[in-house]
Design goal:
30 strands, alpha+beta, eleven-stranded mixed beta sheet, six-stranded antiparallel beta sheet, 762 residues
Length: 762
């Protein structure tokens, strides 16, 4: 029997009579891809520089990615936006980052169309288009494309992966996460973060989930193509990996970053990933010469690079597992594989590196002494490490500068593409390519066009152009023009030339630039990057007319794509929220952790916390906690005694506790925190309305405890434990009837009285 079908978005083509005999049936069905349509696998690495893969000249072992390059091609002129969220938006939408409102990371949004962090529905994601055309669509790993005020459990999911065209998702929504205790989401549901010490690693988990999604599909449908977006947290901080991956690199980086750059530069020319004769950019004065560092510093810096190398090799092994799964199951030669990094290597570890990157996000210098004392711990769950910026500079060899900046060290990144129809496998392509081109390429290879409308909304045209012609034609044209803007650093590429203006985000030692200076005072440089890809020979003075023309072109492109106004110093979490502002917060026992962006701001202010509890004898567990092993605070009970612990950035923990155990029954307990001078604070630990212990904190964390989740929890402590006195989640074994945080300035006794009166009226 023939079953008649029709596309479900079209009118019913059959006939409806009064009886079955005079009616003609037809079934609505979703669209199917053309038989034999390809899969697409887009892999995005995080903070991996141009020179850090073996096939781009590194001595770090990356055999899986090297094999992809040997079976495909590498691009030596692939470019990104210099930072995370904007690049990912380009890869997934095919439009420029400012067009989609993602001119910076979501955490640093501004109230202008190019920077508000809310990707408009006029810019549909590639997975949405492919899903409607019959592809299965999966996202695994880092997202960082939802506004910071829409990352909590009660938020709209419209800008989470399933709201942007993916059918399944497993990963983390924010900027970064702990590799051993990640804050994860499955589809639209946040999971409670728990520390895993059983050999777990997030990168392995992500690949396991990706393989599982493909197997689930193939179990029921052996032919349906898939689009998978796999975005690792690696190799962004925290640099986490087990000793078995670090130890093989012991001693490998003892010669330091200066020698490493020279050796890598030579290998790059031998491999052809840079043209013969390319100059090695000079080390700037704010990066110490390796030989000028003390023996102790050299030992520490080498160890941090050993950790990073192990982290990258571990990531490579996970990529290898996924690729071998496709190869074994006969899927690989049906799959377009595109692998890239989202920006250049990161300098967020500062000049000395750190055991705890959270220092940087509090505007504090890294504690070099504490880092030296923790060298043997680096990479484990008690640390949040990042290497020194000398290694970031080396990781971008032969380029100038690094992540966040629009010199080639920030925007020039590796891109490997494998497609079975390629010619000259293992070679290097010269086409100028941008992240927006990957989306256009995916659609082109799949034979699907970006529709003029999606859900009745007119679509912005793609800014990207397919690089598929270069798969078979080494002489195919690349991009003619591409503009750049990141944190007021600017650049414009046109037909082999590049003009670039550096604007300081921070002042490095030895620099005379002012981060607060007007952009008009920035100096523009000019390079013939077709011949000078490392930007070593500035032609601004000898080619003034060309420079002026390039500057004019930048302004036109910036206006066209929404990259104005220019602003370097952007507010952290300065965005409005749909949640009405309040001065008193009620938390519920066992509710999902509240991300720091959405929690009450407690840093450097006076506040009161009152918790209404019922306990048994010798009660235990966390009442409220925020942060984790790298910094935070916890109000908890231990063997019946009320305790408050303040963890200052993993350096020291200050604790006070009640002299007596709480008797079984009902109690009001809490803390009264009074802000002092600078970041100092006075803390009273209170039972009923009586202070039972006091603590003088000479310094507190001025901005935030974490970028990796570790949110505000009620009744437990998620991920890693704030206090060394217990192990997370250390769930409270009593009942929390109410947990109140009051930032209004109301005296503690009045807050406690309000709670008592509220319950009396119920």
């Amino acid at each position: 029997m023939t079953i008649r079908t029709y596309p479900e978005d079209q009118p019913f083509p059959g006939r409806v009579g009064t009886t079955l005999a005079d009616s003609e049936a037809a079934w609505p069905v979703g669209r199917s891809a053309v038989p034999g349509s390809p899969n697409v696998l887009t892999i995005v690495l995080d903070d991996v520089g141009f020179a850090q893969l073996g096939c781009y000249g590194s001595d770090i072992a990356t055999p899986a990615m090297d094999r992809l390059a040997a079976e495909g091609v590498r691009y030596r002129q692939f470019h990104t936006t210099a930072i995370c969220s904007p690049t990912r938006a380009c890869v997934l939408t095919g439009r420029n980052s400012h067009t989609v409102g993602m001119g910076g990371i979501t955490d640093l949004a501004m109230g202008f169309p190019g920077y508000h962090g809310r990707i408009p529905k006029t810019c549909a994601f590639v997975p949405r288009v492919l899903r409607d055309a019959g592809w299965a669509t999966y996202a695994v790993g880092k997202w960082h494309l939802a506004p910071s005020d829409e990352q909590h459990a009660g938020a709209s999911r419209a800008r989470w992966p399933l709201g942007q065209g993916f059918e399944r998702y497993y990963g983390f929504i924010g900027a970064e996460t702990h590799q051993f205790a990640p804050e994860l989401v499955i589809d639209n549901t946040p999971l409670r973060a728990e520390l895993r010490t059983d050999g777990y690693h997030l990168s392995e988990d992500l690949v396991d989930q990706g393989i599982g999604m493909i197997r689930d599909l193939r179990t029921v449908d052996p032919d349906k193509p898939f689009y998978m977006y796999l975005a690792f947290g690696a190799c962004h901080a925290p640099h986490h990996v087990t000793r078995e991956w670090i130890e093989p690199y012991r001693g490998q980086f003892d010669d330091g970053w200066d020698v490493w750059r020279e050796r890598t530069h030579q290998r790059q020319m031998e491999l052809g990933v840079i043209p013969q004769g390319t100059s090695l950019s000079p080390r700037p004065p704010w990066i110490d010469a390796w030989d000028s560092c003390s023996a102790e510093q050299r030992r520490a810096y080498a160890r941090m690079m050993e950790l990073y190398a192990g982290f990258l090799s571990h990531t490579d092994a996970q990529i290898g597992r996924l690729i071998e799964e496709l190869r074994t199951n006969g899927e690989l030669d049906r799959t377009l594989v595109m692998l890239c990094s989202d920006n250049g290597a990161s300098a967020e570890g500062g000049p000395h590196g750190t055991f705890n990157e959270i220092f940087a996000f509090n505007g504090l210098p890294h504690d070099e002494d504490a880092t030296m004392q923790r060298l043997d711990d680096l990479g484990d769950h008690t640390t949040y490490p990042h290497y020194p910026w000398g290694w970031a500079f080396a990781g971008n060899t032969p380029f100038q500068r690094w992540k966040r900046e629009t010199h080639e060290g920030g925007i020039g990144d590796p891109l490997i593409v494998r497609w079975p129809e390629m010619v000259d496998q293992g070679t290097v392509r010269d086409q100028y390519v941008h992240a927006i081109d990957l989306a256009a390429t995916a659609l082109d290879v799949c034979g699907v066009a970006m529709p003029a409308t999606v859900d009745g909304i007119a679509q912005e045209p793609l800014a990207g152009q397919s690089i598929a012609p270069s798969f078979t034609d080494p002489q195919a044209a690349g991009r003619l023009t591409q503009y750049y803007e990141q944190l007021a650093c600017r650049a414009i590429y046109h037909d082999g030339w590049k003009a670039v203006a550096y604007h300081a985000f921070m002042r490095y030692s030895g620099e005379t630039v002012d981060p607060h200076a007007h952009h008009s005072s920035d100096r523009w440089e000019l390079y013939r990057v077709a011949d000078d890809p490392s930007e070593c020979h500035d032609l601004a003075e000898s080619e003034p007319e060309r420079l002026r023309a390039m500057q004019d072109l930048w302004w036109r492109e910036a206006g066209r794509y929404g990259a104005l106004p220019l602003q370097s110093r952007r507010p952290l979490n300065g965005t409005p929220s749909l949640i009405a502002p309040r001065s008193r917060y009620l938390l519920h026992q066992g509710a999902a952790a509240v991300p720091e962006n959405n929690a009450p701001a407690l840093a450097m202010r006076t506040y009161r916390i009152v918790v209404d509890i019922t306990v048994g004898a010798r009660a235990n567990g966390v009442l409220l906690a925020q942060g984790g092993v790298s910094g935070g605070w916890s109000l908890h009970l231990l063997d019946g005694r009320l305790r408050y612990a303040y963890n200052y950035l993993g350096i020291d923990e200050h604790t006070i506790e009640s002299p007596d155990e709480l008797a079984a029954g009902h109690h009001l307990v809490g803390i009264d925190v009074v802000a002092g001078e600078g970041t100092a604070a006075e803390v009273d630990l209170i039972i009923g309305t009586t202070s039972v212990a006091t603590l003088s904190l000479t310094r507190t964390i001025p901005r935030r405890f974490s970028l990796a989740g570790e949110g505000l929890c009620c009744g437990y402590d998620d991920a890693t434990a704030v206090s060394a006195a217990y192990q997370a989640p250390f769930e409270f074994d009593g009942v929390i009837r109410a947990a109140i945080i009051d930032v209004s300035g109301t005296p503690y006794v009045d807050v406690a009285g309000d709670i008592e009166r509220a319950w009396m009226t119920q």
